[in-house]
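It is worth pausing here to work through a concrete case rather than discussing structure prediction in the abstract. The textbook approach is simple: state the sequence, then state the predicted structure, then interpret. We follow exactly that order.
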Amino acid sequence: MIDRINKNDLLDLIQKQNGPCVSIYLGTEKSGREIYKPATNLKHLVGAAQEKISGYWMSEKDAKKFLQPVVDVTDDSEFWQRTDQGLALFLGSNGLKFWRVAKAFTEQVFVSNRFFVRPILASATCDDQFYILSLSQNKAELFKANRADIEKLDVPEMPDSLEAAMKISSVERGSQVHTGSREQKGKQASVFHGHGGKTETSKEEIRYYYRQVNHAVTECLSGKRQPMVLACVAQQAAIYREMNTYPYVLEQIAAGGTDQLTEHALHARALPCMTQFMNMVVESAIESYRQIVDTTRTLSETSSILAAAHQGRIATLLIDENASITGEFNPHDNTIDYDQTEVDRDLIEDALAQTLLYRGDVFAVSSKQMPGKVLLAATLRY
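Step two, the predicted structure:
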């Protein structure tokens, strides 16, 4: 079972709180004899959290009581039967929140005055929702999907086949005339087919069919900005693009016939297109930074980035996904106290949180991908 986490969830998590914020990450098992082993691992992480909380935040007795909701999870056998690859738990003054995700986490526990969210950053900020338009002459279907799930959408007025679009219930032998869609001063023209045998489907018929599909799809997705993957043979994709008016259709297609595909198989075929697109978004952010790296529009020094983040000036922040800088930033004089003793205070998390709060974009990438071998790199709005 997978729980969807979105950017609004993340914005809620990164708000500072008065009491301790406990963030726990661990890997889990979807099935098999090992599904209950993570419960034991979680108990050990609860013990580590209790040590961090006791004395600094509250007494040992109060810390144990505070952590009880997480302990209850460890004892819930049904919960561990509905996990996926990873589990993220967040315990604060407002209670316990958790997400089961399709990502295997390294076991970690953090305690600070805000939650540690970097491990789930990509799941929450990179909107992985997309649409799949499955097309053939026999079937037209629209799906909403993400990395883990697929769901068929009900699209009003969308023809479910070429025959339905052309309103033909049967094809008679001999010459046939029916409505087509040549664009001649806005008027519909007629499409003529040869004599004898079965009527061959003309490109004009397919265009008319796809024009109707496109109209229904764009009406259904009005105001949406998520990418769409075309799932069809290449020739059909080329024709549909001529009719398409939805601005976010991806260049790469899930190529091949779809008439016999299950929803699961369709999702598996389309997902690599979305993955490639998301990788391109990250690469584009890195390249945009590199192109203006020697100008006043970029920053790579920690205190300068933190100051800009607290001022809402960062448009895009790149962070090393495995780096950590312990310290506390003072936004009043833009200084950093590297000797502070508060547990698990991470300056990179501070920069991440402030950038997101001001609606900037944040990408956690590998050390090799970071431009200039730095731990943080920012592109400024102004």
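Step three, interpretation. The first strand starts at residue 21 and ends at 27. The chain is about 35% helix and 20% strand.
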